[in-house]
Amino acid sequence: MMEKTTSLEEFYRKKLGVLPSDFFKKIGEFNVFKLKDYFGTSKEMPYSRKDYYKISLISGENTVHYADKTLRVKDNMLLFANPQIPYNWEPLSEDKTGAFCVFTEAFFEDFGNFKDYPLFQTNGTPILSLNDEEFQQIQQIYKKMFTEINSEYAYKYDVLRNLVFELIHTALKMRPAQLENEEKTVSNASERITSLFSELLERQFPIESVQQKINLRTPGDFAKQLNIHNNYLNKVLKSATGKTTSALIAERFVLEARALLKHTNWTIAEISWSLGFEDPSYFIKFFKKNEKLTPNGFRSV
Question: How does pLDDT run along the chain (301 residues), one tens digit per residue?
Fold first, then answer.
């Protein structure tokens, strides 16, 4: 079961007990930790999304649940996590060592677009299996991070940004992890995109309060969230389901509209607003096009 999205603030409160006084001013937007200090030797991470980015270096054998895939990493691993993809990892060996850094998108504002690299794309598997020599190579970068973040250098956060890019570029030169059981776990990029689209769509429902409003309602909204082109998303979904992005969104919106019309006493304007329609007349037109009845007509049947 997937837990609710974890914010960086919640991460600090849970792991540190208190929030740093300069949260999001100094260390709030970037920090680096030793793995043992925060996860112990055999604690499993919850399967959830985070609202921050994370790069983790983890020793030994692990199982990783990433989006719709399960991977077995037999040596050591380097895991790149982004806010769009839920994940967790289970240690399969004792005495875990390693480190991880966490940062927000704002930390890299006007400092290069790290999201353009394949390791942070939603249609990939950003988990690298490392031999012991490669593990030591990555560990040296984290050692530089620990030294820098504890220094008094005025521009240390620029250095830390560069060290994150060093992690990314070093990783891109290394081999990706392989699935332990390819027949059972491999899914192509189209299948993953379809699965992620469906999850993004479904997790907006059910609507349980008139204060709750849909955030993603157009094909462009979903494409942006998945970091892919609108036309490519439509092509993938049409191939996988036989339906366009717009049709799939409309079907789910109509299903929710029907439930709200039948099982609540909300006004048409309230239902319209919750479903992301700025003008109730647009909602009425949308509903009638799909159901051949007006909302009030459907409600009275």
Answer: 444 455 556 655 555 555 444 444 444 489 999 988 765 444 455 545 567 899 999 998 888 877 667 788 888 999 998 877 777 778 887 778 999 999 988 889 888 888 888 888 766 668 888 999 999 999 999 999 999 999 999 999 999 999 999 999 999 888 654 433 333 333 467 888 898 899 899 889 889 899 999 999 999 999 999 989 999 999 999 999 999 999 999 999 999 999 999 999 999 999 999 999 999 999 999 999 999 999 999 998 8
What is the pTM for the complete model shown?
A: 0.54
Name which of 48, 138, 45, 43 is nearest 99 in CA terms.
Answer: 138
- Count each helix (H run) and each strand (E run) in the chain, helices first: 12, 10
Q: What is the 3-state secondary structure (H, E, C) of 49-102?
A: EECCEEEEEECCCEEEEECCEEEEECCEEEEEECCCCCEEEEECCCCCCEEEEE
Q: Decide if 54 contacts 29 (C-beta within 8 A).
A: no
Cβ of 160: how many Cβ atoms within 10 Å? 19
Query: Are 12 and 21 within 8 A, CB to CB?
Result: no
User: Exposure string (b/e) for 42-56, b if CB count within 10 Å is 16 or more?
Assistant: eeebeeebbebbbbb
Domains of the chain: 3-183 (2.60.120.10), 187-300 (1.10.10.60)
Task: Give the DSSP letter of residue 217.
Answer: -
Q: Are 194 and 236 in contact (CB under 8 A)?
A: yes
Please give the Cα distance from 208 to 211 (Å, whole number). Answer: 9
